[in-house]
Amino acid sequence: MSLKGGGLERKSKASDQIPSSSLADIAFLLLIFFMVTTVFRTEADRPIEWPEAEATQQIDETRDNIMYIWVERDGDIWINDRLVAMDQVADLVAPRWVESGRRLRISLRADAEAPYRYIDAVQREIQRAGAIYVVFATDLERRMQRERR
Questions:
Q1: DSSP letters along the chain, please?
Q2: Residue 118 contacts residue 126 (beta carbons within 8 Å)
Q3: What is the pTM for the complete model shown?
Q4: pLDDT confidence of residue 31
Q5: Domains and CATH numbers, the chain
Q6: Phi and psi at residue 141, in whole multiples of 5°?
Q7: How far is 43 from 81, CA to CA, in rounded Å?
């Protein structure tokens, strides 16, 4: 009795298909990786005394098209968590106004005790930049935002 081909036969043959059994595992691991490494940006609140108001306007725009300008009582100006000089306000607002397709909304958040000359100077810089949508933030707006969250 002779053995054919050396006596051993191969039980499985090489497949010409890509194995897809671990594809779901890989996709799930990638999903977890991106969820863990994604950072959501939040604006830091400045320590200001919010002005009071009986009514306010809600900004109906995406977060990307809102610019927050803070005016503190000592005249410091913060734009999106960055301290800027008064003469730089228009230079920072103008490009954002154009790239947003003229949909940029500015939320002007001024301290209730800030002298009006600072607020007026910021308004003039915003006008110089060409932006026209400005909302004056108040304590009522701040409370409404907290309730929405």
A1: -PPGGGG---SS---SS---TTHHHHHHHHHHHHHHH-----PPPP---PPP-S------S-GGGEEEEEE-TTS-EEETTEEE-GGGHHHHHHHHHHHTTS--EEEEEE-TTS-HHHHHHHHHHHHHHT---EEE--HHHHHHHHHH-
A2: no
A3: 0.61
A4: 92
A5: 63-148 (3.30.420.270)
A6: -65, -40
A7: 7
Residues 108-149 have pLDDT tens digits of: 888 888 888 998 999 999 888 888 888 887 766 665 555 554
Contact 77, 71 (CB under 8 A): yes
What tens digit of pLDDT does each residue of 1-53 get? 555 555 666 677 777 777 777 788 888 999 999 888 887 666 666 666 666 66
